[in-house]
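If your schedule permits, I should be very grateful for your opinion on a structural question. The matter concerns a single protein, recorded as an amino acid sequence and a row of backbone structure tokens. Could you please explain, in whatever detail you think fit, how the structure tokens follow from the sequence? I set the record out below, with my sincere thanks for your time.

——
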Amino acid sequence: MSRKRDRSVNVTDGDLFKPMMVLSAPIVASQLLNVGYNLADTFWVGRLGGDAIAALSYAWAVVFLMISVGGGLTVAGTVLIAQHKGAGNYRRASHVAGQTLTFVTIVALAFAAVGYVLTPLLMDLIGAEPGSDAFAYAVGYTRIMFVGIAFMFWFFIFDALSRGWGDTRTPLYLMGISVALNVVIDPFLILGFQENPLFAWLGATGLESSLYAATGFGGFGVEGAAIATIFSRGVAAVIGLTLLFTGRVGLEPTLGDLRLELDSVRRIVDIGGPTATEQGFRGFGITVLTAVIALAGTEAVAAYGISTRLSSLLFMPALGLARGTETVVGQNLGANQVDRARRAVKLSSIVVASVFAVVVAAAYPFAETIAGVFIEVGTENADQVIEYAAAFIVIAGPSYVFLGVFQILLGGLRGSGSTREAMVLAIQELWVWRIPISLVGILWLGLGVYSVWYAIAISYVASALVTAAWFLRGTWTENVVDEGEEATTPTASD
């Protein structure tokens, strides 16, 4: 098969550190750009006040659950394609790409239908008070996200498949296009042409008045953030799938590969199911945690929303490096190079711990200033929200060094196909540590949202230590691909 445009990185031969960083750097950059969606939404929605920020927190708990399950299933595509490529089974890798696309799309459509209907009930269960502005905002935002879920999933699929092949640059370029679109249209879709501070910042106040007089468009409010996200994700998804089926990323799936085969679905579910379950439990856990924080008041929920955006600045890069490690481990185990796979995990752990230590130390003196960026000073309860969010940086910040190592170790396990072990270890962070400690602190110790910040710190440290102990046992190094069986399995194009 022709792969003239193949941009994949060779991580199975020669030096390891440099190609691994070359592979991982675009993923990290892509994850940082991904944070751009949340930061832009939070920044502009923050101009609408505390209820609007709280609505994003309520909505995100459900949205995160939705995309976590689909995202978990795409891990199977990453693992199988990485290991098939390492073993030299290129045709089979392309077949897996088609099967993953069809299966995850079906899951997305099912989620969209069910989620749209159940959104009001879910918001009520999380703790949003029916009849309140925050409840109305959250319902509108979440329903729009459900309507456009397929576009989000398609981009996640393209990203996962390209990553497994070893091409991380193409998804980065598409993410850049998507985020740029989102950043440009966010302020207009959220605030419209009336009382939009963007015009004042650009020195074009007169233009604002003229546009509003001509159109009468005052923005969609919180719902505008959802519309901007779905549109920008959709553009990237369509371009990505076009590149995939024209063979421009190395993989060459055919239309025949889109017809689901029972054996392929079983393999996807077997490998991706535990990660989807893990992400589902995590998403549900975030939902439960949001409901617990709601007991401390709207200001606490708003501060949690800001802390979530701030933490994503570190969590997403850690996840990006972990996904790069996932590919390196998968391809090297596919090539039966166990020691090289193990060394990749150790090198990534050192890199992430070192970088995070520097970033956290730099952020410490500016905690309150950083928190204040995400809410308009002078709006209702803004000072309280900023105080809570700044405390998050001070209390939980140092633990993110451990979070980084924790994510790398999980990435190594997933790359080997040990997704069940990764599932258990990932779930324990939230359900064994963070949620119980938060609940005790809020209900019995009276610490309010501060108990959540302490719970986050304890959970990251404890989980990193537990996962490191498991990793050192070395039982994760067996290759999940049966080379003889998979290399000879017929496909629609054979």
About this structure: Residues 391 and 450 are 7 Å apart (CA to CA). Residues 17-477 form one domain.
